[in-house]
């Protein structure tokens, strides 16, 4: 492969920068079970945080609800859905503000990249903008991104969710960069597909997964298009160098 000039690093938020998925899906499960009762949806069993993660990791709440309406053949008005989306944001943000921690090792990596000043850094997430900003502010990472924080649920004219590539295309347009000068870091299948479909080289990250799940998720991310998968943020500098040298 030819050497690649990278100018921009686009980072997913949940379980890539911050350990938020368990907290967020716990709140989502409670709300989805409430909706199911009100809509008389015959769930085989109530959702839990872990069962939602298994099915919907990388998607936002709106995306989950659209999928569940199709699966269980029930409907919600736009106003109902928007109201629940707002409620979910409030529930999850409260949990994040109380307990959120950064992913292991990400802080020093971002600090070094910021000091070097060679790359633009941005957050590109499916989650609502309020939630993303609350998350990175809680763990002190917001200083590395400025206004370059983009949400598929909030930033776009029409809300969507990964694996739709729209949020990556939007972020690149706003930042004035092209796919070939970017890399993305993603922890989920849907996020990896989103970046790949936008023409970006995606680095997979499986650090937050349980030890027994890491190997399986490495394969999932590679099948979704990740050019390499790392288990720890300490690997990132070497991965970036290999991409720039045209080795991967």
Notes on the protein architecture:
There is one protein chain. With 248 residues, the protein is α/β, with parallel strands linked by helices. It has two domains: 8-20 and 101-244, Rossmann fold, CATH 3.40.50.1000; 21-99. It is 49% helix and 10% strand. It has ten helices and six strands, in the order E-H-H-H-H-H-E-H-E-H-E-H-E-H-E-H. It has helices spanning 21-38, 49-56, 61-72, 78-99, 106-116, 129-138, 166-175, 189-197, 211-223, 236-244; strands at 8-11, 120-125, 149-151, 182-186, 201-205, 228-230. It has a six-stranded parallel beta sheet with strand order 3-2-1-4-5-6, sandwiched between helices. Helix 9 links the parallel strand 5 and strand 6 (228-230). The model has no long low-confidence stretch (mean pLDDT 95).
Blueprint (SSEs and pairs):
Elements: E1 8-11, H1 21-38, H2 49-56, H3 61-72, H4 78-99, H5 106-116, E2 120-125, H6 129-138, E3 149-151, H7 166-175, E4 182-186, H8 189-197, E5 201-205, H9 211-223, E6 228-230, H10 236-244
């Amino acid at each position: 492969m030819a050497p690649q000039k990278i100018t921009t690093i686009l980072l997913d938020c949940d379980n890539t920068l911050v350990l938020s998925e368990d907290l967020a899906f716990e709140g989502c499960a409670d709300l989805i079970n409430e909706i199911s009762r009100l809509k008389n949806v015959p769930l085989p069993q109530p959702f839990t945080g872990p069962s939602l993660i298994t099915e919907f990791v990388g998607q936002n709440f709106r995306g989950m609800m659209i999928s569940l309406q199709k699966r269980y053949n029930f409907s919600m008005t736009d106003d109902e859905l928007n109201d629940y989306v707002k409620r979910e944001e409030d529930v999850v943000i409260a949990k994040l503000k109380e307990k959120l921690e950064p992913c292991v090792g990400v802080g020093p990596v971002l600090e070094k990249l910021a000091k070097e000043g060679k790359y633009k850094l941005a957050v590109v997430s499916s989650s609502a903008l309020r939630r993303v900003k609350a998350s990175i502010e809680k763990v002190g990472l917001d200083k590395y991104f400025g206004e370059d924080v983009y949400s598929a649920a909030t930033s776009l004219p029409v809300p969507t969710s990964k694996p739709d590539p729209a949020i990556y295309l939007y972020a690149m347009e706003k930042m004035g960069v092209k796919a070939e000068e970017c890399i993305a870091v993603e922890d989920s299948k849907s996020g990896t597909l989103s970046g790949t479909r936008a023409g970006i080289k995606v680095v997979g990250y499986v650090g937050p997964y349980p030890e027994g799940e890491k190997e399986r998720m490495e394969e999932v991310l590679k099948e979704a298009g990740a050019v390499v998968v790392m288990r720890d943020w300490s690997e990132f500098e070497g991965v970036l160098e290999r991409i720039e040298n045209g080795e991967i």
